[in-house]
Amino acid sequence: MASPTPDPGARTRVPEHRSRDHKPVVPQGFQGWERTDNVRRQPVTVRVARWSATHPWRAIGLWVVFVAVCFAAGGWVGTNDATDDDLAIGEAGRATTIIADGHFAEHAKENVLITARSGRLDQAEAQAAAKDAAQRMGGLREVREVGDPVPSRDGDALLLPVTMAGDEETASDNVGKLLDQTAAVQKDHPDVRVEEVGGRSIGKGINDQVGGDLAKAEFISLPVTLIIMLIAFGAIIAAGVPVLLAMSAVGAAFGLSALASHIVPSVESIGSVILLMGMAVGVDYSLFYLKREREERQNGASHTRAVEIAAATSGHSVVVSGVAVIVSMAGLYLANDGVFASLATGSIIVVAVAVLGSLTVLPALLAKLGKRVDRPRVPLLWRLTNRTGPPRVWPKLLRPALRYPLVTFLLSVIALGALALPALDMKLKSSGAEDLPRTIPVIQAYDRLTAAFPSEGTTHVVAVRAEPGEAARVRTELTDLSNRTQNDPLFAKVTAPVVKVSKDQRITTLEIPTPYAPGTPDGKRSLAELRDTLVPATIGTVGGAEYAVGGDIAHDEDYAKNLKDRMPLVIGFVLLLTFLIMAWTFRSLVVAATAMLLNSLSAAAAFGTMTLVFQHSWAEGILDFHSTGALVAWIPLFVFAILFGLSMDYHVFVVSRVREAVTSGMSTRDAVAHGISRSAGVVTSAAILMVSVFGIFATLSMNEMKQMGVGLAVAVFVDAMIIRVLVLPSLMTLLGRANWWPGRIRNDAPQPKVPIDDHPTEQLPAVIMNSR
Shortest CA distance to 52 belongs to which of 341, 328, 359? Predict the structure, then answer.
């Protein structure tokens, strides 16, 4: 720490307190570096915080430049969106890759749907609208061809097919011109309903909805977060600093994720995940740091010294928590899934930026603001948040766990097990049109399209790559394959096989229709029949040919198989790495093992709740969604990775306080009471914040966001209010000194026996009492 009159040999003044045997007690992390010239023995978090606190304007300026450069660079480079090839999995993925290599002249197709607003369709008006639409569409350079109107079987709808010009990649950018013309036709023909439905118009509608959801989440989360921070601090500036840092971290992460998308292609949900994770952990980390710094100032430390102590304690917990979240999210890369890889990348980036901000610019802000961080004060809230004296509520809540630890532990675990029980019946499915919110106009049009022109099943696609000299034989074998399916009830009869050959004669495809939808038993049997018997007996006889069976049924089957095969690997990686992090942090295998147990309990309870809410229809009215009888397949594994990392946040913070109390000379039971009750205010504030942010996402329109929001909100609530109040204290009380095995805590101070009802925290050294 800098001094007005530097003296290399001078001792840095550390807040010193005396234990019961009159030996000085120094905050954990400060032992051994009392001299200013011995800075290399100080933790990195303290050295960084000291530099930021003594050079505040430089630190603040560097952070502003960092955020601005990241955001601008991301906007300049742009986002590389994931393609079907990037998301390819299994044999269906190989089929997609083979087809892409054929460079077939595929053009995006749109449809103008004309239906009656009520009653029967006026055929004359429908034909007039279709003619108007054909003329308008035909005049666009973005349109390649306009087909003839097709009436539905019952005559209640008229469909005008439109083929877009250019390749499918440019179609997404050009579909807006077609939508404008459709809107103009609707305006000129108000007596009928005129809508556009197609892959690109649906994609645009979903993107617009996601953008609106993000704006809604930002609009709601900011005031909610500020209110929670005001309640936690009782001062406006103190409440605003964590929110400001979290928003800057989110902004920088958006830019960095755009850059990273050119290595790991981005999926649509990544923006929502970055906002959700950034607001949760960004404010959370700043909350812990700011609370500790304020309390050290109240304990008599200077501004810089208070920042140093906060860096050595809360800063250390932030680093451990951030590393745990990053490691947990990194496990998703093992899933070999483009969606998981993209979401993991976005989460890792925003968590890393949030940790960096809390360790660098936050100390600078606190040092520069000084006491002004507690201004202006909100009178009532200020008195509540700065009430002196021992906690009153939390010792009473902890009393059952400390007095009857075995009974409390068993009853709590049984209750959480009962909540987790529905997860045994959890069903997973790939996200489809049925998962999309019906509030999107184009999805309503899609429903009317499928009702008027029902699909009769789906199509298998056999893709073959062979040498050009084998093209004729490949075509012959594919024709034979089509003939073999004609009398099989698993497939639909066709008048002529749909065979396509690439210009270079290397890629050939065959479409084989089936009357069954993806996910149905008969659909799966038709896929197995092709892959196991029919295709090997035909295309398999062509020497050197590479072949694969794709299509919607194949994609669903391969995705589910990949998830089933990879899930144990991902879960094992997350469990092992987080176990090692906790064992290294606390030098205790028991603490690491109990952390795995408790986090698994909260995860299981969250999965059980998600199954109850989304797999059944009883909560549809509450959360405004339509149950499909299953969860979106990628949600549970993603939620597991997130909550395992976030749970370490509370666990590290609380167990560190318990360990600090044990080191000071308290019995395990009293240390548990002290550590949890004195840290409860911060943990509760952080939990309320996270539950609120995650709860906001449960109100969004997309089913994926709803499921993720509910799962994370329930997990955090269970973790903070049940695990930390009942399960953790009862388990640590039962284990006693074994909590720290195989490490040993040196403790020369006597361990007084203090009744639970008498607040043991009152007899602790002041530096321990105020380390919340």
Answer: 359
